[in-house]
Amino acid sequence: MNMIKPRNSIFSNIVTMTHRNLLKTLHNPDNISDVIMQPVIFTLLFGYLFGGAIAGSVQAYLPMLVPGILIQSILNAASGSGQQLREDINAGVFDRFKTLPISPIVPLAGQLVGDILRLLISGMMTLLTAFLMGWRPAVSLSTFIVVLLLAILIGWSISWVFALIGLMVKNAELIGSLSMIITLVMAFLSNAFIPTDTLPTFIQMLVKINPVSFAVTAIRNILKTGTWDANATMVLISGIIIILIFMPLSSFVYRKRG
Question: Which of 5, 98, 160, 246 has the greatest number of C-beta atoms within 10 Å?
Answer without folding.
Answer: 160
